[in-house]
Structure formats: C-alpha cells, structure tokens
Amino acid sequence: MKKGKVFIFMGVSSTGKTSIGTEVAKRLKMKFIDGDDLHPRANILKMSQGIPLNDEDRVPWLERINDAAFSLEQKNENGIIVCSALKKSYRDLIRQGNQNISFIFLHGDFDLVLQRMELRKGHFMKADMLKSQFDTLEIPQENESDVIFVDISRSFEDVIYDCVENIEKLL
Questions:
Q1: What single DSSP character describes residue 3?
Q2: Could you tell me the CA-to-CA distances from 74 to 5, 7, 107, 108, 119 in Å, in that order?
Q3: pLDDT at 101
Q4: pLDDT of residue 1
Q5: How many CA atoms, within 13 angstroms, populate the side-chain half-sphere of residue 111?
Q6: In angstroms, how far is CA 30 from the centroid of its own chain?
Q7: Residue 76, burial from CB neighbour count under 10 angstroms (0-12, 13-18, 19+)
Q8: Would you state the pLDDT for residue 2?
Q9: Which SS3 state, helix, strand or coil, does residue 146 take?
Q10: For the chain, what is the radius of gyration of the CA atoms?
Q11: pLDDT at 126 over 70
Q12: Which stretch of 78-82, 94-98, 111-115, 153-157 has the lowest confidence by average pLDDT?
C-alpha cells in the first residue's frame, strides 16, 4: 500500500461527507479529519447566524485543509478529510503544493439533500442555506481527473462500498 494519499470527501452540506467519510476511514484504517473542525472562529459564528460564507471567508479555511493534507502526505499517512470544496478554485487551492490528493464527490439532487438536511440535528448549517451551496457548486469537469463521482441516492452501505472500492484502487 502506498502511503501519504489524501482523499477529500466533497459536496454540499448533508450529502453524508462526515458519516460516510468516518465509516470509510474506519474500514480502511485511515486517519479522519472533519474539515468543519478547521473553520476559523469567524466562519463558525457567521454560519451559526445563517449567513453564507463568501470566497474571502473560505480562504483561511481552505488553507487549513491544504495544510492538513500536506501534513498527512509528509508523514506518509493515508487520510480522509471532509471539505465541501464547492468551487474549482477551492479544489485548486487544496491541491496547491500537495502531490497525492483525490476528491470523492458525494452528489445527489436538491430534493434528496434537502430531505437529509431537515433530518439533521445539532449542525450549524441551516436548511435555507442549501440553495446557496447548490448555486455555488461547480460540478467537477473532465479536466479534474482526480475527482471520483459517488451517487448518494443509493443505500448508505452501497455508497460506503463504492467509496472503499474506488479508494482501494488508488492505494
């Protein structure tokens, strides 16, 4: 197994990034980092008031994600980091200076994601902010060859299986 490979679980809020990422990391015995824990205080306060983040707000957060990925690579550890990575420019910032990153794009349609969001408890993201995330989302294109698409409309176990299978091919 090659070491130092980082997988960024990306997508809009409530696509299962944390729950799927945690389970995949457990099954593959990889380090797990929840990108939400890397948000600066100002971002957390802003989101808790229902105010969407802008690009300027996201830069320090994305730099922290980039640093975490760099740390894993440098320590020759495999890991999963959760980060929405909604725009190509965000993904490019995460890629910057990192050699061994792949993105797992967890995607589903608006109605499915809204239904899941409404079932969540204790998360600072508000359901009315979901539209903002979908509006911001730049779906990865063919020129982003390091992105793997995973459809979340299937069962949790099927999504986990798909993620594990795709990751194992790259390790």
A1: S
A2: 10, 15, 30, 33, 38
A3: 97
A4: 47
A5: 0
A6: 15
A7: exposed
A8: 53
A9: coil
A10: 15
A11: no
A12: 111-115
Q: In the predicted model, is pLDDT for residue 157 greater than 90?
A: yes
Q: Tokens 């696509």 sit at which residue?
A: 15
Strands 6-10 and 31-34, bridge-based pairing: unpaired
Among candidates 40, 44, 38, 34, which has minimal Cα distance to 8?
34
Write down the pTM of the prediction: 0.91
Distance in angstroms between the alpha carbons of the first and the last residue of the chain: 6
Which superfamily does 6-170 belong to? P-loop containing nucleotide triphosphate hydrolases (3.40.50.300)
116: tokens are: 């899941």
User: Longest C-alpha distance within the chain, in Å?
Assistant: 44
Which residue's structure tokens are 């730049």? 138
Starting at the earlier edge strand, list the strands of the sheet with 31-34: 31-34, 79-82, 6-10, 101-107, 147-151
Residue appearing with tokens 């490979």: 5
pLDDT digits (tens, 9 = 90+) for 30-74: 999 999 899 999 999 998 887 878 899 999 999 999 999 999 999
For the chain, give every domain's residue range: 6-170
How many CB atoms neighbour CB 164 within 10 A?
14
